[in-house]
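Explain this fold:

***
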Amino acid sequence: MTISAELFQPHVGTSFSVVLEPSQTPNPQFTLRLYEISTRAIRPGQKAFSLLFEGDASFTLQQGTYFLQHDTLAEQPMFLVPIARTAEGFRYQACFNLA
């Protein structure tokens, strides 16, 4: 399976489970909702895209690599960066550069 914005597009609005160590959170079923995909061309022949996720305020992920699971996609490692705090919780971004 090739990582691409098109792969994730049908899953905007769905939840991804974050695989956490038991010591990281009291709730081992922490989930993020994919709320947006941002795409842009950097140079001719090169594409970049970002996956933007929302999580609730019960737990904050630190910047780092996490394995995300989805009902219809293979488990994916993603480097997540917290980018904003909202009234509902936290937002995270995963960036991809494709040659």
The chain has one domain: 5-49+60-98. Residues 23 and 62 are 14 Å apart (CA to CA). Residues 5-49+60-98 form one domain.
